[in-house]
Amino acid sequence: MYSKFLKSDIESISSYLTKYKRKVQGKTFLITGGSGFIGSYLVESLVNFNKNTNVEIKIISVDNNITSVKRYGFGSGIVYLRKDVSKHFNLKGHIDYI
């Protein structure tokens, strides 16, 4: 799990995002490198935002090393794809933010 400093940062980021609630309602976010340090930080911030607001955003985490995800406390509303983003792959549905 995250240290208290990272947890505090994640909560600060998700709190900051609340001013964009209307803009991101029902949107889909694609996070590349979602299992890495920065990517997982971003995914966890979006998960926290989902959890603490009534805004439902969809998160698609793409990484070529999905095994590291198990150590994080990700919740529902996330799709994990084990893909190499340097190679072409197809996604179903609309992506609003990358």
- How can the largest sheet be summarized? 3 strands, parallel
What is the typical, i.e. mean, pLDDT? 83
Strand content: 15-25%
Helix/strand-derived category reads: alpha/beta
Instruction: Report the order of strands and helices.
Output: HHEHEE
* Helix proportion range: 25-40%
Commentary on this structure:
The chain is of the alpha/beta class and about 100 residues long. Helix 1 (about 5-15) packs across helix 3 (about 35-50). The radius of gyration is 13 Å and the shape is flat. It is about 35% helix and about 15% strand. The chain has a three-stranded parallel β-sheet, with helices on one face. The model has no long low-confidence stretch (mean pLDDT about 85). It contains three helices and three strands, in the order ααβαββ.
Notable characteristics:
98 residues, alpha/beta, 3 strands, 16% strand
Produce the secondary structure layout.
Blueprint: H1 4-17, H2 21-24, E1 28-32, H3 37-52, E2 58-63, E3 78-82
Parallel strand pairs: 1-2, 2-3
Question: Short summary of the structure?
Answer:
The chain is an alpha/beta fold.
